[in-house]
C-alpha cells in the first residue's frame, strides 16, 4: 500500500481524499519511483477543487510534478537508485501523478534530478519554475536582451511570476512586477523587481495601442491583462504567454502585431520536447539563486495538500508550495 491523494467520482461530482492505495493499482509504465516531494501548481489546484476539467479520467492521483528515486526500471536510461524529476506529460491529468508516495510512469518522461538541486528544491521550482525558464528562453530566442528595455512580469507573487522575476533580475534585466498584492512589494523587490505595477492598471479594457513601454513580457494572466500587455509593447517587443489566471479569452486587436511587429510566443510546458526541458533545467541550475528560491517556499504537510489547493486559487499563497510525501503509510 502507498498513500496518495485520490480524486474519485466524475466531472462535476468528484470526491478527493488522502487515502491508501494498492501498489498493484499503479498504471502502466517502465519506471517506478518512490516520491520524496511534490508540489501544488495552479493546475493541480484546479484538478483538486474540480474548478476546471483538468482531470481527464477517474480515479486520478493529481500532481503534475514529482521528485524522487527510481525503485525499479526496465527503461534503458534509468536504474534503481537514480534521483529523477518529472514535469507534465499529462501526469496528474490522464496518468496518475505526483501527490502520492509512489508513481509508475514512462521513463521517456523523466529527467535526471539536476545536481544543483535537492528533491525539495526541484519541487520548489516544479512546473511553475521550469515554465518561467521556458518563458525567459522564449524572450531570448526572439532577440530580447537586458539592453532592450524593461520586462513586465504579470502574476508576479505567484509561482511562475516569482521565479520569472528572480531569473530575469539575475540575468541583468530591469523587471517591472505586476501584482494585485501591493503588500508584497518588498518580497518582489527582494527577488529583484525594480518596479511594481498594480494589477488594476492592466485589468480594464484599454486602447489597441498605448505608449511603447515594455521590451519583453512574461504573462501568466491571459484575458484583458494580456491584451493590455500587448498594447503597451515597444516596437518589436516580445511577449511570452503561458497562463490564464485572468481568463481564457484574449480581447486584443492585431494592431500590436502589424503596426509594432510585436511577437506573441505561446509557451507550453506539458508536452515540451525533452531537449528543451533539459536546457531549461540546466539554465535553472545556472541562473536561479537558491537563497531566493528558499524565500518563495511554503512547505505544507501532505495531509494539508487538499486544503492548500483552495488557498492557492483564492490567491492566499505567495511563491511556491512544496509537499513532502515520503515515508507515510497510514490512511487518514
Ligand atoms: P499561482 O496561483 O502561483 O500564481 C498566479 C498569480 O496570478 C497569482 O498569484 C496572482 O498574482 C495572479 N492573478 C490571480 N488572479 C489574477 C487575475 N484575475 N488577473 C491577473 N493576475 C491574477 O499560479 P502559477 O504561477 O503556478 O501559474 C500561473 C498561470 O500559468 C496559471 O494560469 C497556470 O495555469 C499557468 N501555467 C501554464 C503553464 C504552461 O505550460 N503553459 C505551466 C505553469 C503554469 P498577484 O497576486 O501577484 O497578482
Task: Walk me through the structure.
The chain is an alpha/beta fold. It contains nine helices and 15 strands. Strands 3, 4, 5, 6, 7, 14 and 15 form a seven-stranded mixed sheet that branches. The chain is globular and about 60 Å long. The model is unreliable at 328-332 (pLDDT under 50). The structure holds NADPH dihydro-nicotinamide-adenine-dinucleotide phosphate (NDP). NADPH dihydro-nicotinamide-adenine-dinucleotide phosphate (NDP) binds next to helix 1, helix 2 and helix 3.
Distance between the termini: 13 Å
Q: Count the DSSP helices.
A: 9
Beta-strand portion reads 25-35%
Q: In which range does the helix fraction lie?
A: 25-40%
Brief account:
Helix content is 28%, strand content 27%. With 332 residues, it is an alpha/beta fold. Strands 3, 4, 5, 6, 7, 14 and 15 form a seven-stranded mixed sheet that branches. A six-stranded parallel sheet has the order 10-9-8-11-12-13, with helices on both faces. The protein has a two-stranded antiparallel sheet with strand order 1-2.
List keywords for this structure.
9 helices, alpha/beta, 332 residues, disordered C terminus, six-stranded parallel sheet, seven-stranded mixed sheet, single chain, binds NADPH dihydro-nicotinamide-adenine-dinucleotide phosphate
Per-chain topology:
Blueprint: E1 2-10, E2 13-21, E3 31-40, H1 42-49, E4 65-73, E5 83-87, E6 102-105, E7 110-112, H2 119-141, E8 151-153, H3 159-170, E9 175-179, H4 185-191, E10 195-198, E11 214-219, H5 223-231, E12 233-241, H6 255-259, E13 263-266, H7 274-287, H8 290-296, E14 297-299, H9 305-313, E15 320-324
Parallel strand pairs: 8-9, 8-11, 9-10, 11-12, 12-13, 14-15
Antiparallel strand pairs: 1-2, 3-4, 3-6, 3-15, 4-5, 5-7
Helix pairs in contact: 1-9, 2-3, 2-7
Bound molecules: NADPH dihydro-nicotinamide-adenine-dinucleotide phosphate (NDP).
Amino acid at each position: 500500500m502507498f498513500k496518495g491523494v485520490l480524486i474519485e467520482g466524475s466531472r462535476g461530482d468528484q470526491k478527493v481524499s488522502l487515502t491508501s492505495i494498492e501498489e498493484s493499482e499503479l498504471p502502466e509504465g517502465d519506471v517506478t519511483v518512490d516520491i520524496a516531494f511534490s508540489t501544488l501548481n495552479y493546475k493541480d489546484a484546479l484538478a483538486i477543487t474540480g474548478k476546471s476539467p483538468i482531470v481527464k479520467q477517474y480515479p486520478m492521483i493529481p500532481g503534475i510534478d514529482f521528485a524522487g528515486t527510481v525503485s525499479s526500471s526496465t527503461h534503458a536510461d534509468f536504474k534503481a537508485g537514480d534521483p529523477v524529476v518529472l514535469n507534465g506529460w499529462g501526469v496528474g491529468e490522464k496518468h496518475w501523478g505526483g501527490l502520492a508516495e509512489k508513481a509508475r510512469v514512462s521513463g521517456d518522461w523523466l529527467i535526471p534530478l539536476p545536481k544543483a538541486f535537492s528533491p525539495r528544491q526541484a519541487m520548489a521550482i516544479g512546473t511553475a519554475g521550469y515554465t518561467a525558464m521556458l518563458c525567459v528562453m522564449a524572450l531570448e530566442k526572439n532577440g530580447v536582451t537586458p539592453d532592450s528595455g524593461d520586462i513586465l512580469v504579470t502574476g508576479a507573487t505567484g509561482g511562475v511570476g516569482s521565479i520569472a522575476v528572480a531569473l530575469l533580475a539575475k540575468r541583468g534585466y530591469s523587471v517591472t512586477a505586476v501584482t494585485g498584492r501591493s503588500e508584497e512589494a518588498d518580497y518582489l523587490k527582494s527577488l529583484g523587481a525594480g518596479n511594481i505595477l498594480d494589477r488594476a492598471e492592466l485589468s480594464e479594457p484599454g486602447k489597441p495601442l498605448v505608449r511603447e513601454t515594455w521590451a519583453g513580457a512574461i504573462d501568466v494572466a491571459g484575458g484583458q491583462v494580456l491584451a493590455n500587455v500587448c498594447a503597451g509593447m515597444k516596437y518589436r517587443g516580445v511577449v511570452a504567454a503561458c497562463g490564464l489566471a485572468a481568463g481564457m479569452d484574449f480581447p486584443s486587436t492585431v494592431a500590436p502585431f502589424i503596426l509594432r511587429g510585436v511577437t506573441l510566443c505561446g509557451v507550453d510546458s506539458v508536452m515540451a520536447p525533452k531537449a528543451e526541458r533539459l536546457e531549461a533545467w540546466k539554465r535553472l541550475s545556472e541562473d536561479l539563486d537558491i537563497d531566493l528560491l528558499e524565500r518563495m517556499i511554503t512547505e505544507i504537510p501532505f495531509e494539508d495538500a487538499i486544503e492548500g489547493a483552495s488557498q492557492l486559487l483564492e490567491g492566499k499563497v505567495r511563491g511556491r508550495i512544496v509537499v513532502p510525501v515520503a515515508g507515510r503509510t497510514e490512511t487518514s
